[in-house]
Amino acid sequence: MCKLLVIFSIVSLITHFKSYLNPMFKQLVLLCALSMPLVSIAATAPFSGKISTQALLSDYDKFNKQYNAFTPTEEDIALMQKLEGKELIVLFGTWCHDSQREVPKLIKLLDESKVTLASIDYVAVGYNKRDDAGVAQAHDLQYTPTFIVKDDGKELVRVIEKPKGTLAQDLTKGL
């Protein structure tokens, strides 16, 4: 609302003093005034960095809705036990529709299976698929989401964007 008031004020001033202003200068001022909302939108970047499942589900409605809508099968819950003691890195975008679909499924699978992982890191990235800590770059992130299963630092499984089978099947393939 405040931005609209500023734009209106600038346009009003231009109209009032139009006889005093050079026409080219007037067009420049008008262009700047009209582009102000675009600048404020462009400055808004999505969250990036490590995030907890609690924060993800409470702060991002689409993730929460998908979490609540998803019911894993008994087979998928059992498959998740193959991840026992493994490390899991989840690279995703809060802005990404594939992430909004798949990451909540993973969280629900982990909650339902009660599997104990050595570690799990949820790392959100910006539109440029980077985070400030460099986790995404270190793991050569190309597409979101990307799920990486490791054992003692060695990558065992990588699921990119969406699984070919179920998420549990793809995460545990070959384990």
The count of strands amounts to: 5
Largest sheet: 5 strands, mixed
Number of helices: 8
**Euclidean distance between termini CA atoms:** 56 Å
Output the radius of gyration: 23 Å
SSE run: HHEHHHEHEHEEH
CATH fold label of the largest domain? Glutaredoxin
**What characteristic shape results from the CA principal axes?**
globular
Sheet-strand content, in percent, reads: 15-25%
Could you give the order of strands across the largest sheet? Answer: 1-3-2-4-5
Helix content: 40-55%
Unreliable sequence segments: 1-6, 38-43
Mean pLDDT over the residues: 86
Total of domains: 2
Structural class: alpha+beta
Name given to the CATH homologous superfamily of the largest domain: Glutaredoxin
The CATH class of the largest domain: Alpha Beta
Organism: Pseudoalteromonas espejiana
InterPro entries: Thioredoxin-like_sf, Thioredoxin_domain
Domain Thioredoxin: 32-175
Protein name: Thioredoxin domain-containing protein
Write the layout of secondary structure elements.
Elements: H1 2-16, H2 23-42, E1 49-50, H3 53-59, H4 61-69, H5 74-79, E2 87-92, H6 97-113, E3 119-124, H7 135-138, E4 146-151, E5 154-160, H8 167-171
Parallel strand pairs: 2-3
Antiparallel strand pairs: 1-3, 2-4, 4-5
